């Protein structure tokens, strides 16, 4: 079935003169890599086509990837093919004008909740949307041109969404596709430096987190990054959100949470939820969010809801430990 969907996607791309790429709000490496990689691959393969990525978001963390295209009139969308990557439901698409396009293709690896595309290619077991686009290339490699730039975008998304190829979603196929991207000339030394070098203040913040994090009775580690803390360390919302990765290696903690206050508290407090072995997305879904089984996001409004989410995560950790052996 997936082979026929991939072929149908390629034929739709061939049929349209104008193609527009879309991705989710609160951009990350996978949605950036997938949208920019797909754009670069289409442009290199079909140089006469117009390929646009109109988003309007900014990411300090991923600014090295370059700017997107500027705004265009609504008429530009109307005869275009939309390709939306790495976005499970239409409410999370950062540019709502995708709906103006003539047809919509959805390429995603999250749990299916909203089949909004005219063509929906969803593989929940994939480590990244970039892995799927790399597979689209590999399935019809004689019909695609893969530049070093496109491969670099796709490899970036695979690296970031797989936790540097550590998560359980990583398969042999994933590694083989990553290898094909490397064969195209990806400069991994520069890419890893751009992704993982930290500003001095961010390093100091990391030390602060280890001093102030908390842990529940059943092994849920958590930290609340307030607006005052962000100002103290000069952190953007995006940089502060990376705090969740600081908590992942605590023995006995199967779940870890980061609460990050928005610039405007009326927008709520952003929550990043991560887990090892146990699933956590069901907790996120009860708090205005969702995502993968072991990596999800949510939003809470006020301290009472924050404490409720922590309690629910703690109960999930307790149940898992009571019913499983071999957890660390």
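-> sequence recovered:
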């Amino acid at each position: 079935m997936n082979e026929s969907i991939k072929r149908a996607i390629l034929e739709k791309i061939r049929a349209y003169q104008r193609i527009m790429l879309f991705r989710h709000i609160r951009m990350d490496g996978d949605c950036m890599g997938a949208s920019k990689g797909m754009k670069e691959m289409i442009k290199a393969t079909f140089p006469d086509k117009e390929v646009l990525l109109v988003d309007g978001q900014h990411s300090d963390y991923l600014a090295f990837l370059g700017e997107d295209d500027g705004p265009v009139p609504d008429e530009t969308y109307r005869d275009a093919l939309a390709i939306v990557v790495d976005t499970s439901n239409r409410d999370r698409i950062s540019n709502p004008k995708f709906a103006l396009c003539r047809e919509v293709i959805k390429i995603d690896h999250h749990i299916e909740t909203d089949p909004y595309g005219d063509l929906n290619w969803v593989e929940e077991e994939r480590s990244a949307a970039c892995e799927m686009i790399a597979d689209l290339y590999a399935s019809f490699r004689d019909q695609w041109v893969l530049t070093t730039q496109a491969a670099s975008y796709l490899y970036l998304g695979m690296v970031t969404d797989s936790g540097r190829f550590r998560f359980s979603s990583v398969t042999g196929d994933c590694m083989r596709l990553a290898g094909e991207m490397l064969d195209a000339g990806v400069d991994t030394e520069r890419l890893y430096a751009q992704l993982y070098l930290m500003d001095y203040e961010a390093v100091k913040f990391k030390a602060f987190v280890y001093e102030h994090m908390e842990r529940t009775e059943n092994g849920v580690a958590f930290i609340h990054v307030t607006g005052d803390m962000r100002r103290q360390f000069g952190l953007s919302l995006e940089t502060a959100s990376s705090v969740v990765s600081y908590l992942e290696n605590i023995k006995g903690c199967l779940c870890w949470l980061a609460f990050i206050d928005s610039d405007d508290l009326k927008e709520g407090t952003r929550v990043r939820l991560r887990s090892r072995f146990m699933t956590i997305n069901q907790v996120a879904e009860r708090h205005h969010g969702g995502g993968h089984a072991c990596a999800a996001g949510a939003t809470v409004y006020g301290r009472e809801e924050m404490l409720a989410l922590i309690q629910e995560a703690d109960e999930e950790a307790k149940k898992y430990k009571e019913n499983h052996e071999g957890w660390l």
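The two ends are 39 Å apart (CA to CA).
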